[in-house]
Amino acid sequence: MSRDTGAGAAGWHDDEVVAAGLPDKRLARRFGRLLDQMSAAPGQPVPAACGDWAATKAAYRFFDNPRVTEHGMLAGHFAATARRCAANDGPILILQDTTEFIYSRAQPGKIGFTKTINAGRYKAGQPNVVTLCGVLMHSSLAVTLGGTPLGLTAAKFWTRTKFKGTWTLKRHVNPTRVPIETKESYRWLENLRQSMALVGTPERCVHVADRESDIYELFCLAQDLGTRFLVRVQTNRLAAAPAGAEPRDRAHRVFTQLSAAPWAGRHYVAIGQDETACVHVKFATIQTLPPVGKQKRYSPQLLTYIQALEIDPPAGRPPIDWKLVTNLPVGDFAIAIEKLEWYALRWKAEVFHKVMKSGCRAEEARLETAERLAKFLALIAMVSWRIFFLTMSARAKPEVAPETVLTTTEIATLDAIDAARAKPRILRKTLATYLLQIAMLGGYLARNHDPPPGNMVVWRGLTRLHDIVFGLSIRTRRQCG
């Protein structure tokens, strides 16, 4: 029997599918049914989620259809994300990050490769170099300042067919002189451009990313598009010479000028759940020059650098030393702290990818080609976003009505479960109350000192909840028959 749970249970993704860029209505209906099945059984293999051979074969045909693309599948979700961004006030953080999905295959060439790693040594002492088979995903996730994920604004999937000896190549070619359009890192600029075209209000967006996105071309593109960025620095770029210095002296670098700035104050940052660290904070506005080989193409940028350096770090870990760069105005210590807190939200992108891998078990898929896996990952990305959205929405707005996030079928099923208890638990009709019931279905104990429910207990609870929905639907059909 197919695991379809009815239109009411699938209502959450109506908005995510209605604008999907699929070539005909039949494929759109199949996509909606498949999204319903996978969201009702997150983490289950395709056959288990579909429930029978006919539905499973239809899913495989969908993934194998050349007319279906991962971008077309996500088009409806992108449009829904834009609406959620428009409905929220204040700045929107666009978190960019790359992750790898690793697979084990007898014929890895059908998928492609991600990177080569050193897996230790053989008994004879020779190094064991292993090439990993898999798919890379570069995503842009829109979140509010409260940490609620509004959805993806861009996503790119790809594999590497072969390795080109990057380190050997650097001995002969200066990578700063290679056009960005020919590099894999061009994905950062593509996602930036696509996100701004989608959201439509670049002035309220801040693009937050780690050191891999420390790309001068990205800074220039952000200026051209009228948007903002907040990036962790890894490159000690050339800086305009201070007054009185020789203008051709290339010893002037941004880190040198930043180190000369005075410390503005101290701040405590949270590390994990139970540890905090005290950091010195400083900031400086520096005229930053493009790489030497690109100074004819790009103009200097007036950027602000922020450094947070830990005071008296413990012996067990390296000290916190963040250097951030932004084109946002930073006029005082309080604003510098605000930008540090915004950058700390970048971890939400890592959590989103963790939900895809650990919760929805995206790396356990058995599809045999990169094209099929990319479509499967696009589907799983939507399911993972919904789990993440449920969890964080209940933390950000616990008192709102549950209908704002949950479907009518999910609410009715939770009410039926609660009515069967000797002592009801749902005393208030709020989102936080209903999400707590879902988490408790997933093993959350709800003790007084427990942290709020996390993504893992929520996805386990959703799985059990949809099993109950499925059972109730069978009973209803038999009674009606």
UniProtKB/TrEMBL annotation:
Residues 10-68 form the Transposase Tn5-like N-terminal domain. InterPro entries: RNaseH-like_sf, TN5-like_N_sf, Tn5_transposase, Tn5p-like, Transposase_Tn5-like_C, Transposase_Tn5-like_N. This is Transposase Tn5-like N-terminal domain-containing protein. It holds the Pfam family Tnp_DNA_bind.
